[in-house]
Amino acid sequence: MTPDAWGWWVAAFLLVLDIAIRITAVIIVPRNRRPTAAMAWLLAIFFIPFVGVLLFLLIGNPRLPRARRRKQDQINAYIAETSEHLHFGTLRPEAPKWFPPLVEMNQRLGALPISGDNGAHLISGYQRSLDEMADAIRQATDYVHVEFYILQADAATDNFFRALEEVAERGVEVRVLMDHWANRWKPRYRQTIRRLNAMGADWHPMLPVQPFKGRMQRPDLRNHRKLLVVDGDVAFVGSQNITDSTYNLSKNIRRGLHWVDLMARFDGPVVLSVNAIFLADWYSETDEVLSEIDITHAQVGSGDLDCQVVPSGPGFELENNLRLFLGLLYAAKKKIMIVSPYFVPDEALLLAVTAAVDRGVEVELFVSEEGDQAMVYHAQRSYYEALLRAGIRIWMYRKPYILHTKSLTIDDDVAVIGSSNMDMRSFGLNLEVSMLVRGEEFVREMRVVEDEYRELSRELTLEEWLQQPLRSTILDNLARLTSALQ
């Protein structure tokens, strides 16, 4: 066969393959996927077929492996059965009419029942929160459960690790979970593992990507939760990882970046719910059921806050955190305060926040002036014009600080704090934990923190934003398209 003939057959084969890829993509990609994500994937496959297909095969499945999902179903059934007849504490009277149905929805999606008689306080200082967690650990008599997206032994966290070593030495069981991918390639990973091993901690990686050990899923599915439980009496939940405020990354140190976070300390019945999340993740990673840990007998806390823990992630059928946020945004009557380092809303969330302004609700959004993740930072910026035109006030926390807090407060008595950003990654790809709190005193504490953030921020105006150069607008819009690739 002549070279020209070979070339013709190769071209014909590639053309047929290209058409087959496009037809197959139209059939497979949109199935059980939100329209924006499906359209983004189809555009990638149509414009760059072979690269698009490779990326889709690598990261196109937003769900955990089937075995892991079966475990999550077992966990949900166990939690529902265990908590069916439990009524933790006394709930505050005169709840808004919309609040009980929201709580019921959360429980159906996988949360434990709401509990009353809880105490809580916020910890806004970065080193202070690490030290308060260390102080709580030193009070342990039975066990300490540590679950953080990033866990690094460094100078800032030395007190935290020394506390773990001290209690482990006197026989307290120390169990540790940390995300595999987020830690494996980061600084100080080996030092951290050596220190955990030396103290005798029982530690395991979460969502490990270890194909040679038969442990594989979409590599960018992450367990993003941050929580600490001590003896089932005290729990910490929030946005902060156990690491230096620079994350020990040379690029952050070079730019002078430091993270600003918010943690909350809880006591009372809700600690059992936080512990249940840890036990579920422990079972998912180890196949070990910690049946000796009691999550049915609650201690009365130091306050009377109503609290409910809402887990979310690809192990659940629905986007639990997004539904919680939407319910609260539509329920707000006077004020909505959103703090999110990565605010990349889907259509439903964007409609909810802009519709709130149309109802006469005051809406403020706190973000960072400088970004640490370029694609997410630019995708977030692509929404600023629509938000500003809708009447939402945007506060930009001044660089070189990254405002990493994740919180939502509405009106005067309801708040959410936890690990979940308001972006499509947190809604669809990350395992997150959110704490719903009802109580004026807790919201007053949140307002103090929000006021501090406002003082350290500058307000972005529509006039300023419209002066953005065209190249920035193009980059923002391109990043917005990639944010939908789920």
Quick take:
With 486 residues, the chain is an alpha/beta fold. The chain has helices spanning 3-28, 35-47, 49-59, 66-83, 99-109, 126-138, 158-169, 180-184, 189-199, 250-255, 270-286, 320-331, 347-358, 374-381, 384-390, 424-428, 440-455, 462-465, 470-482; strands spanning 115-123, 143-148, 173-179, 202-206, 222-223, 226-230, 234-238, 258-260, 263-267, 305-312, 335-339, 343-344, 362-368, 393-397, 401-403, 407-410, 414-418, 422-423, 430-438, 457-460.
The total number of structural domains is 3
In the CATH scheme, the class of the largest domain would be Alpha Beta
How large is the radius of gyration?
23 Å
By helix and strand content, what is the structural category?
A: alpha/beta
Q: Low-confidence parts, pLDDT < 50 over ≥5 residues?
A: none
Helical stretch tally: 19
Task: Give a quick account of the main beta sheet: strands, pairing sense, barrel closure.
Answer: 16 strands, mixed
Instruction: Quote the distance from N terminus to C terminus.
Output: 45 Å
Proportion of strand residues:
15-25%
Shape: globular
Instruction: Report the CATH topology name of the largest domain.
Output: Endonuclease, Chain A
Q: In the CATH hierarchy, what is the superfamily of the largest domain? A: Endonuclease Chain A
Instruction: Name the helicity range.
Output: 40-55%
Number of strands: 20
Q: How much is the average pLDDT?
A: 88
Any guess at the CATH architecture of the largest domain? Answer: 2-Layer Sandwich
